[in-house]
Structures are given as C-alpha cells and as structure tokens.
Write a structure and sequence with these properties.
Elements (H helix, E strand, L loop, with lengths): L5 H12 L21 E4 L8 E4 L1 H9 L9 H12 L10 H6 L37 H9 L8 H15 L11 H16 L4
Bound molecules: zinc ion.
C-alpha cells in the first residue's frame, strides 16, 4: 500500500473537515460487508465531492486496489460506485450479464450501454423473457454472488466462470507477489464454496 498516496491526504482532510456524527449507523459500502463504515473514500473523478463509506479493511483495499477497475470504462466504474451507494445492492456492475443486457434491474438504462434511443427505458421485467431455469437466490446466495461481482442473473456457468476469472486476477502470482488481495480472494473462495454447497455453482 502506498502511504504517500494523495488519496490518503484527501480522506484525512475530509474526515477532519466534517466530523461523522452518524458514523455509528453507517455500514461499510463494500458489497457483502457487515462492518461499520468508519472511513470515507472519495468516489473519483466522475463523482467529485461524493464518498464511499468503508470499514478500515475495505478503505485500505479500495485505496490499494484501483486495478479492480482496470479494463472498466468510466461508466462502468461510476455505475459500480452508484450501486455501492444506493441501497447496498449487491452488484459491482462488472458482470458480463448486466452489461450484455444493457438495462438495469430497476428498469433504468445503464449508462454507456446499447440503448441509445431509450427503447427499453422503463421496461418492466417480463418473466416470460427470462430463462425458464433461472434460479431464485436467497439472501445468503445474493451476498455470495455480490462477492463474486455478480447479480441474480448469474447462472451456474456464469458463477464458475467469474470465480475462475477472479481467482486468476487476485492471485498473488498474478500480482507480482502482492498479497494485498488475499482477503478479497478469501472472501471470493468462501462465497464460491457457499454457492457450490447450495448447488448453485
Ligand atoms: Zn468493509
């Protein structure tokens, strides 16, 4: 972790400038994390003046793992950040399923996706258009899916593929021996094991 990162300065400054009177009630914004959110992290260039609220572990992870966003467009990153803020919905918006679909679960458009004419804006989900074998996930499974950066559109194949991809990406061997991804990797393995034990993967 780079302790000289300008991010840390910005966090410190902001934390001093605005005491967090309600911090006891705020949960960590990291999907699936139940810890208190006691640290603020700037959301980035598209969200000036807005902040995530993270626990210590995840603010560290956030600051040290910007390469989570490698390969993501600004829109994807903003979408992730928005989802993390709004209602703690367990999506990271990195899911291939979501971006391939081009519209959001709540019927609004995902920015930057393939609906320039707004044809699907406000579209109500039509059960008959879903795959018939689509599983219904419980809360624990949804949390596990969120840990794997998936939403409830994921099927067993998608879960397996995402798991492999994440393990590959977060493995120390793939990061020049950097072990800062270990906690995330552990969470992912646990989540996947849960989904497997629940016969969902
Ligand atoms: Zn956390």
């Amino acid at each position: 972790m780079n302790l000289n990162s300008s991010l840390f300065d910005r966090i410190r400054v902001k934390a001093k400038a605005k005491p967090q009177v309600t911090r006891q009630q705020i949960g960590c914004d990291h999907p699936g994390c139940a810890n208190l959110g006691e640290f603020r992290a700037p959301m980035g260039r598209l969200r000036e003046g807005q902040y995530f609220t993270f626990c210590l572990e995840h603010v560290r992870e956030y600051n040290s793992s910007y390469n989570y966003f490698n390969g993501m467009s600004d829109n994807d990153v903003a979408l992730y950040q928005k989802d993390a803020i709004i209602g703690h919905r367990p999506t990271w918006s990195m899911g291939v399923n979501r971006s391939a679909r081009g519209f959001r679960e709540d019927g609004t458009d995902a920015p930057g996706t393939s609906d320039p004419l707004g044809m699907f804006r406000g579209r109500v989900r039509d059960p008959s258009s879903e795959r018939p074998s689509r599983p219904r996930y419980g809360l624990a499974a949804m949390k596990a899916l969120a840990t794997l950066d998936l939403d409830d559109s994921a099927d067993a194949e998608g879960i397996k593929a995402r798991y492999k991809e994440l393990v590959k990406r977060l493995h120390p061997d793939a990061n020049g021996g950097d072990r800062s991804f270990e906690d995330k990797l552990r969470e992912i393995i646990q989540a996947y094991n849960y989904l497997k034990s629940a016969k969902l993967a």
